[in-house]
Amino acid sequence: MQTETKPVTQKAGKPWLSKGIRDHLVAYSFIAPNFIGFALFTLVPMIFAVILAFVKWDGSNPMNFVGIDNFIRLVKDTTFHKALWNTVVYTVGVVPLTMACALGLAILLNQKLFGRNFMRTAFFFPYVASLVAVAAVWNFIFSPTMGPLNNLLHLLTGIPIEDLPRWAADKDWAMFTVVLFTVWKNMGYYMVIYLAGLQGVNPELYEAAELDGAGGWKRFVNVTIPQLAPTTFFVLMILVINSFKVYDIFINLFAGADNQLNDSTRVLVYQIYNTAFRSLDYGYANAMAIVLFLIVMGITIIQFRGEKRYGQ
Amino acid sequence: MRFKKTWGMGLTVMLAAGMLAGCGSNNNGGTPAPAETPATSTNTANAPTEKGNDPVTLKWALWDWEATAYYEPLIKAYTEANPHVTIEYVDLGSTDYMTMLSTQLSGGADLDVLTIKDIPGYANLVKQNHLEPLNGYIGDSGIDKAAYGGTVEQIQVNDEVYALPFRSDFWLIYYNKDLFDKAGVPYPTNDMTFDQYEEIARSVTSGSGAEKVYGAHHHTWRSAVQLFGILDGQHSVVDGNYDFLKPTYERALKMQDDGIIMDYATLKTSSTHYSGVFYNNSVATLNMGSWFIATQIEKVKSGESAAVNWGIVKYPHPDGVEPGTTLGTITSLAVNQKSAKKEAALDFLKFVTGDEGAAVIASTGTIPAIKNAEVLDSIASIDGFPTDENSKEALNTFKTYLEMPIHEKSADIEVILNENHDNIMTKNTSIDQGLADMNKRVELVLSN
Asked: Is A104 a member of any domain?
């Protein structure tokens, strides 16, 4: 590289720009296409969103600056609290369960098993399948009176159908149903990530542990888990972020034809959508979005710290 | 290397330029946009009836193109008389249609004629200044507001009107004669109080499991349950106090608990459409808007509806209120204030909402906003319309209350009412708590 730059030198002998700056410019020029796209479609809207959180605006008429009024409203807004609470409950339900299922499946399907590839595909399939379609199938299976699940339970236990859980249609069971659905739908994806992690573990470590007399469980705790730590942190982070951003799953399972969620199923992103596009209160909706952003960012920072401390 | 570097720079510039250009052409919004022809200038809006022969293409925002019988005949009738006009439709879908429309317009979509689906959405569009005020045009072109039976006045905002109704639907009770015959229960009549309606629904309910027949069917819309409460004319849903709805909800929940109507939450999670349960003989009566007449006639003909022996009667009413008192919904047309072809758009609006449009709409079994004896006769004489006298008489209304009256805050109120309706019907809250929440939050909206 160093010898190559010579011919660029101007006739006068002195370079037009110093070599360092030229190198930087070249580097930037390669980054530029991506960065311009990022700036235009992500950075500018993000800055705009932050500004919007401090105004009252209906999308057409002039904006009114209202200071932190929108955030004060949030503190008192019980509907928002309900949405936030539901989102937290959903996250707490989904994240550990998905991780446990995905890891379990990955370990199982990392063995030399008959039909291993078929099983891997089978568990990965729900992730690929269209959400709208599988949600419709789930709602059919879980249908309180006509669904096969409750009819099967009725046959097995003898409990009258009216007394069985009404699943998605029941305010007390709705959250459980959606957690179950999400775990089933997404565990295949995280299983693949874990599988990749498992295949990256040095087999010599297991050999050494075995020589030291470690049994299956001890090997799992002392070799597999620490070796998978980076993978686990990655999975954890993506899962938490995705759980906080959930919207489509709730809409497809619960919202019905008029796109309406109630107190037991309302989540943050739905509340933001409702406030912005149905009530035309863009400022207030953006204040909610900022809160969501801060929560996700906070959790991510904590996880990064954790990874640095315990990951190695 | 020097060559490579220059080449790299060039490529970069090209990519960046391509990106900017791509961004530029994105501004047309989500609609497929053919080359625009700004044929008519907005400044000539005062030249009346001068139908210039420059070709004009109007874009009409609507929903459910496939499922709606009158769009195509309307366009056909208009373009035959005005061959220089081409009308393209933009189907924004039925779910959240008004939200979509408002978002499209805020993004500067080049729509000209706008169908207005509901009052809250209309109030929002007026607030956002998306709609062309029509008072001037109505005066200039001699449109008779009285022909609309008071509906124009119902959508007036501060003495200005921004849309003209072309459909005026009202709620009825549909019933399945075969199921009544089988149960040995006399048919519903055109004069039913709420108590009589509930009694009839209870007596016609029978069976269990797959054979179960429900006496009534309340769809998951708020209107289908909550608005029984406003028919006494004493209250409206924008007043800010909702205690008067208590008996209405008590009745609905009791009917739900007793298995007279299907369970709300189940209907919702299974996205069950009200038409399906009527078609397959699962429900003996159905309270629904008059828009269902045309669909039911058509589906009986196509064999999709097994409820071939059916009839309609007037909506049930509270004690001491005249029969024929019911709920109403207006569907109207408006013109985009930023349209470049306002003159042509207004002319199309005048056609659809006027007498000629009304005749076309009535011929498809749909009730137009201009509703006189002649129009009602033509609907009742459509092949497939129930032949009994009661069904024909049911088309005459005494008084219609809008499902949502016009109010500056009606969109916000609607959200709160819908949420609490859902909470009450799914038993997420008790009736008292739900109504208290409505009172509290609507109060807040009204005082803001």
From this structure: yes
